[in-house]
Amino acid sequence: MDLRELVSALNDFAPLSLAENWDNVGLLVEPSPPHTVNTLFLTNDLTEEVMEEAVQKKADLILSYHPPIFAPLKRVTWKTWKERLVVRALEHRIGIYSPHTAYDAIPHGVNNWLTKGLGACTSVPLHPSTAPSYPAEGTHRVEFCTDTEHLDVVLSKIKDIQEISCLTTSPARVEGEEQTRVTLNCSQKALLEVVALLSQNSLHHKTDILLLQKPLLPRTGMGRLCTLSEPVSLSDIIERIKSHLKLPHIRIAVGTGKTLESPVKKAALCAGSGSSVLKGTEADLYLTGEMSHHDVLDAVANGISVILCEHSNTERGFLSELHDVLATHLQNKINIIVSEKDRDPLQVA
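== NIF3-like protein 1 ==
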């Protein structure tokens, strides 16, 4: 499968527009074209050990959930481990692709997989995603009517304003008089100029200003708020999570006034580092990989218990599920393998 065809298919599976704006997603390293991908190699973190595994298994493209290139590289030498990853990849003609928070947002992604550890439940995104391409331009729509004889003057002044788009005119009747309706999209900055222009003269009537809001995408977004079918004790939830993540232990902070036998009906979760996503959410339980000490204290003080499993432990198990769904999505055209060396860097001594 040609690399560019595969990247297009991966982008269809999880549109990169769903990723957080601070993220670095997509094709990060590309061998010189043409580049055929026979083997796709999945990993949560691309370490040097994992890279050597990919080389040994003759991978043509590495899909690394976490982007190995995040901060900009000023040079590519043998000095730092991330630079060496790029060197090794290009030496062996291996591309590197990272979806990261795009996989967090999609309905069939990492956070949805993590909800399965709670048992039977329904879930909604904590921070829903909006349709990235609607409206195409502008944050506001302005509509007003003007006398036909003054239309050219008004349009000329409006066209001098920057960040105006979708400017259209149509016939209208106001109070029995033939007029022209002018409609335009504009940015917040341009809106102030448009309003100032219209307030300077009496060449317009019946002005409407609409806020253009992008529609929410169903079941798509960051984090999940889960409502269990039946309340379950915190101790039972702990065992379910350990089983789902295949962990011998987790870390638990019991909310003030709660015990291990307290019922859990609502759980808010976020794979990876969930402090910013979970903060302020009303729930019986927060489930994530890591949180700051003070955010844990805040949650506990509010009677919310917290389960922490280490960052990548809340993500890595998704790779097995991803293997199967990608195989179907790509119509079994390529070989897909999951890293055996990839693991969380933190161990219990």
